[in-house]
Amino acid sequence: xxxxxxxxxxxxxxxxxxxxxxxxxxxxxxxxxxILLASTIFILSDKNLYYPLRITASLSLIRELYPESYNDKxxxxxxxxxxxxxxxxxxxxxxxxELNRAYEEFTGSYGGIGITVVGHEHGLMVMSVREDxxxxxxxxxxxxxxIKADNVxxxxxxxxxxxxxLRGQEGSVVEVGIVRNNLSDTITFELxxxxxxxxxxxxxxxxxxKYLYLRVLDFEAGVTDEILAAFDSLYINNRHTIxxxxxxxRGNPGGLLSEAISVSDxxxxxxxxxxxxxxxxxxxxxxxxxxxxxxxNGLPLAVIVDRGSASASEIFAGAMKYSHRGIIVGDxxxxxxxxxxxxxxxxxxxxxxxxxxxxxxxxxFLNDPxxxxxxxxxxxxxxxYIEFPDNEPFLLSLENSSILRDFAILHRNEIAAxxxxxxxxxxxxxxxxxxxxxxxxxxxxxxxxxxHDLMVIAALENYSQKTLESINKLQQISHANDSxxxxxxHEYILQRIYQIAMEIQxxxxxxxQKAIIPYRKDIALAEKILSQEKID
Length: 536
Fold this sequence. Notes:
Helix content: 40-55%
Number of strands: 20
Low-confidence stretches: none
Largest sheet: 6 strands, antiparallel
Radius of gyration: 33 Å
């Protein structure tokens, strides 16, 4: 090719290149703009991408403009905590240490005071109390609201985090402030933390009426094995004389769904619905049926519950009630109706998250699936109601004072010597009245307190002498009624003195056998109903 032609071609290319480059750049710009617009629309329309972007944008803005120092990890942790806490009172965020402690509850033992709690607007509401733990021994009750641990207020705190202040090294002391009776009474307990081994079956034995009695404390890992072991040692050798089965779930906070299903399976013939679980997606929906035969061969069965029976214990009670396998005796259960699971996050922290509602035969939900409020369960109503005396104000005051326990410990040897009798001598009641007076124990009812306040106001306001005399007369009547509470609770006081002395002297087994079961009205009622049903 001649030099002239080459130069002409170069000139032609040079002439058109700037124009082609501009068109190519415009096309590229338009393509990028379209992609960015589409991405923005996609992100804004997809909540899974939009919400994290907002958090990231907020942190970026803080990093760019905020003039003071801050901890971005703490900010992110607080954001997660607040987000999960908004869901319901059972869900919550856990840091690494809290998650490890939560796993610890399922694996062996932990240092604490023996209670299960849920969130409350004023702190932590006691859902159930382990009877052999420090809180149960001291007199803390289901429904009490914990407002502080030592000098730390737990009001408004994440419930899962607040429980860390109740836990601690074995032998250490924690001062727990609670309110009860609709927040009108404030009480402080000084409790020594214990290493609480997860003993699931507090007692198993045969009552004088020939009923197999099981006191089940929780549904954590291993409870099914303990119940089977109890049946192996008690039922097999007495199968021809045992009339029925009593399963005591009072104050049982629940535990693992799998254990509730396994225990239910023991008492049902195959093919009965134990529980249905309804989550958000179809992968979270299932119905769990019994697979084995009833190990009692259809013996009459009663489940004893109260307002501290919750979660997995409600699943067992509901499975028995709504499959018409057994009767429910006692009070309405706590009312949860929800299933939670522990999920570990990438950084080692985790969540306790509500994942489903559960239901029983007949499509009976404890927690209304059509309600906008997920925490709306009403509990399982008993077939036969009985009022438990423990929550009566006089008895609560008596238990909280510790004088019952102190008196029983002081005279445990002499009281235990009466253990061959059906009930200890009434002389111990008279001795206790003298002891209570020496210790300056005095019970004042709400009416007495209100009359006292009224008298103070009347005196300050210069009410007439006649009015003051009338108020004084009412005070005398009210104080007389308060004093009469001792005699009205004669049987309860004797039983508790006997129980405490036997427990300390011979252990919980002897206490159940001689000082608890023979005097429990709910057990007597359950036996009476089951015997009538068997006759019918």
